[in-house]
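Slide 14.
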Amino acid sequence: NVSMKLDTHVDTQYLNLLEKIMKDGETKTDRTGTGTKSIFGYQMRFNLEEGFPLLTTKKVPIKSIIHELIWFLRGDSNLKYLADNNVHIWDEWPYKAYLKKNNMPIPEINGEEWKSGMTAFVEKIKSDEAFAKEYGNLGPIYGYQWRSWPTPSGAQIDQIAQVIEMIKKSPDSRRMIVSAWNVADIEEMAKAGLPPCHCLFQFYVANGKLSCQLYQRSCDTFLGVPFNIASYSLLTMMIAQVCGLKAGDFVWTGGDTHLYLNHMDQVQTQLSRRSDIRPMPKMKINLERKNIEDFVIEDFELVDYTPHDSIKAPIAV
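Slide 15: predicted structure.
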């Protein structure tokens, strides 16, 4: 596809970010003790009409992204839904919390003992309802804050329903915001999950198109950011459909935007593929769906995705 717009392509923009961090990043310590190269403040913009912004210079697991988004939109914050659907992007944190809670030694992270222990933990979440209730609950994280933000009076606010209502009724509003950064709940979230990295997003309507900008306070650029771009692009498309609009731009804004020091070889591998960026895939969504609650995994079909092989990297916990 010669007509592919290379300068706005997701891979071009993303590889430029990787290069900028490698070149200008400050070496910093971090919570996990891994160490990072980091820059502060960065922005990328993706026109969703040009294609679905899923990287082609490495394979990104789209099923995990869709399942996680459905999980958030259900207002669910228990690991069980993800475990049942074979999605393992959240396993590390509740496993670590479970070990701590029971005063068990924490094995070397990403070592064999850690991996086998975590696998057993996830199996138990799947098979044991009571265990899942106690140890699968990640606390008041994204799904909870999106759909049932607690008010001081004891009521709950469904931010997603509210924002959809505003997009439909007052599309010029400058208050179409969903926040996951509930200051009162941060410590609670940190116990079994993480305080929200992608913490605030805003919608904007113009020319019959819905755009969305995300502010992400902490960005694991190699492992996390490709997921976040795809996830919020998909969310924008879903909400546009529900509101009878076309999808416009997804704008990604990063705060502490970093590469972990143990991801550097993987970054070089990916940068070496710059000369073979492939056309962005298309995402087909079941047009019958008119309610944000109704989407299921079968409603999504990724078409024409021909990426390079995936690149494995250890996650910092």
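Speaker note: The radius of gyration is 19 Å.
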